[in-house]
Amino acid sequence: MSVTRRSFVAALGAAVITRPALAAAPEMTVYKDPDCGCCGAWIDIIQTDGIDAVAKNVTRESLVRFKLANGLTEEMMSCHTGVIQGYLIEGHVPTADIRRLLRERPDAVGLSVPGMPYGSPGMGPENEREAYDVYLVRKDGKAEVFASYAAA
């Protein structure tokens, strides 16, 4: 059986029409201190994992005001804050948890990894990590465990 140019073009056109559209990578804006290296390491990780991230350097004072104005309590704060599809991503949150948040779409402020736990994304080797939790921060300020990571 030989393939003619006409049959090839027709088959190619059908494949393009019936192929599902590729999902666009989610976009995140990350507000951070310009001198923080671990923030840049976290951004590199989430970009490698398929989230488009743009860093915006801000002063520490303006970042804290932004966090408080958008529903984060002091106990839930970390070094940088991402904004993605209406949610805040506070600190060194793993990409898998961000994707789960975007799939489930809970009525919440967002996710937080308070402080800077060693071994969380961007904070040292995962195979040496300390145990930490990722919290779902509700709009009333309460937080509940969204995911837990055991010490390695």
Tags for this entry?
seven-stranded mixed beta sheet, alpha/beta, 30% helix, globular, 4 helices, Glutaredoxin, 152 residues
Task: Report on the architecture of this protein.
By secondary structure, the chain is α/β, with parallel strands linked by helices. The chain is globular and about 35 Å long. Helix 4 (95-104) links the parallel strand 4 and strand 5. The chain contains 4 helices and 7 strands. The chain has helices spanning 5-18, 37-48, 60-69, 95-104, and strands at 27-32, 52-57, 81-84, 87-91, 108-113, 132-138, 143-149. It starts with a helix and ends with a strand. The model is unreliable at 7-21 (pLDDT under 50). Strands 2-1-3-4-5-6-7 form a 7-stranded mixed β-sheet. It has one domain: 3-Layer(aba) Sandwich (Glutaredoxin), CATH 3.40.30.10.
Any guess at the CATH architecture? 3-Layer(aba) Sandwich
Shape: globular
The first-to-last residue Cα distance is 58 Å
The largest sheet is: 7 strands, mixed
Secondary structure: helix percent = 25-40%
**Under CATH, the topology is which?**
Glutaredoxin
Tally the beta strands: 7
Low-confidence stretches: 7-21
Number of helices: 4
Biggest sheet, spatial arrangement of strands: 2-1-3-4-5-6-7
Could you name the CATH class? Alpha Beta
The radius of gyration computed from the alpha-carbon positions, rounded to a whole number of angstroms, is: 20 Å
The CATH homologous superfamily is called: Glutaredoxin
Overall number of domains:
1
Share in β-strands:
25-35%
Mean pLDDT: 88
Give the helices and strands as they follow along the chain.
HEHEHEEHEEE
How does the helix and strand content classify structurally?
alpha/beta
